[in-house]
Amino acid sequence: MPNYMYFILAVVALIVGYVIYGGIVAKIFGADPNRPTPAKTMADGVDYVEMPLWKVWLIQLLNIAGVGPVFGPILGALYGPVSLL
Q1: Do residues 50 and 43 touch, judged by C-beta distance below 8 A?
Q2: Model pTM above 0.85
Q3: CA geometry: angle at 57 spanning 50 and 71, to 5°?
Q4: Dist. CA 27–CA 20, nearest whole Å
């Protein structure tokens, strides 16, 4: 099997796991889109501040992108080529 197939299989496994696990969590905890968030109920202007949706997604993207360069070399040093499997 070509090496890029491992990557494709890993991405597919992550997507399938996300869908299945997300469905299980939604059934157990019952996500309610009408329930107010702590940023609305406990707004204090410091710790709980309501932000526009684009800022929330940007923060999530930056958190993911910031961790990658840290964990990549650590996993490479710990596990070597086995971490690609």
Answers
A1: yes
A2: no
A3: 125
A4: 11
Give me the amino acid identity at 31: A
Backbone torsion region of residue 48, taken as left when φ is above 0, otherwise alpha when ψ lies between -120 and 50, otherwise beta: beta
Residues whose CB falls within 8 Å of the CB of residue 51, separated by 6 or more in sequence, listed in order: 39
Residue owning tokens 């099997």: 1
- Could you report the per-residue pLDDT of 9-55, keeping only the tens digit for each? 999 999 999 999 999 998 999 888 899 989 999 999 899 999 999 99
Query: The tokens of 9 are what?
Result: 């299989």
Tell me how long the chain is. Answer: 85
CA atoms within 13 A on the CB side of 54: 0
Amino acid at the residue 44: D
